[in-house]
Amino acid sequence: MSLKNVLALTASLGLLASGAAHADDLQALADEINANLEAAGLNYRAEYAEILTTNDVSEAAVMRFFNDRGNKQLPADFVPGDTRRGWSSPDANTLTWTRDAQNTLDVSPAAQSAAVANAMATWESQKCSALGLTGGDIAAITGVLLGQSGPTADVMHNGFYPAGLFGPSTLAVTVTFIFINPDTSPTDINGDGLPDTAFREIYYNDGFGWATGGGNIDIETVALHEAGHGLSQAHFGTAFLDSGGGKLHFAPRAVMNAAYSGIQHDIKGTDKGGHCSLWGDWPNN
Ligand SMILES: [Zn+2]
Question: Does domain 3-279 sit in CATH 3.40.390.10?
C-alpha cells in the first residue's frame, strides 16, 4: 500500500494523532538504548521496528527507522556462520529463540508456552527451509531494548508490557538490531547488499485480553506473525475498509498482513513464498 493510501485510510479512521505519538515513544526508547550500547562499546544497534495493531494501518504499514542512514536498503538478513552471534548455537548456522515466561496474563503458563512454541514450529516445519530452530522458555526477564538483558537468542519473545510502552492500539512490535562498524555504519560481511542482523526482539502489549484457542487476541496468531518478522519477513497485503466503512480487511489474507484480523495458525501462500525466498538456501547462501 502506498504512503498516500496509508494517509488517506488513516485520516478516514481518525487515527493520525495517536499514530504519531506511538512512533515518538518507540523512537525515544531506541535513542536511549542505542546511546547506552555505544557507551558500552557494543557492536549492535536498534535499527528498525515493525508494529502490529488491531486496526491502525498507519502504524503497521510503515516500518519505523530509528537511525537516519541516508538510505533505506533494509530489511537486514542473518548471515550464516556469523560468529558475532554468540547467542546462536552451536555455529550460527542454526537459529535460536527464547521466550520470557514471566507475566501475569490470565492465560495458563503452559498454554502460553505452547502457543509460542507452536508458532516457531510452524515456521520451522516449512519444507523449503532448514533453519534448525531451537529454543524455549527462559526464566530471566529479557529485553535489550528495555535495558534488561543482553541478547539471549536470534529471535527473542520478550514478554508482555503495559500499553504505555508502545501505544494503545499496538498489539506487538518486533525490533531489529543490526551489527555496526566502528564508524556506526551497518556491516555487510557476506556482501549481499544488506545490513547484517544481530538479533530481533518481540514485545507484546498486556493491555489486551490475550487468549489461546479463540476469543480476544490469540497469542499463537500474533507470535506467528512476529516470528515472521523475526525471520526477516516484512508486511504483505493491501488493506481496505469494507463497504460499511467499519471493518478492515486484507487482500490477500496472510499471516504477514499488517493488522490483526482473527486467528491464523497456518502459513498462507504468500507467507510461504516470502519465507522460502529468504531461507531456501540457508545456510549455504
Ligand atoms: Zn507486523
Answer: yes
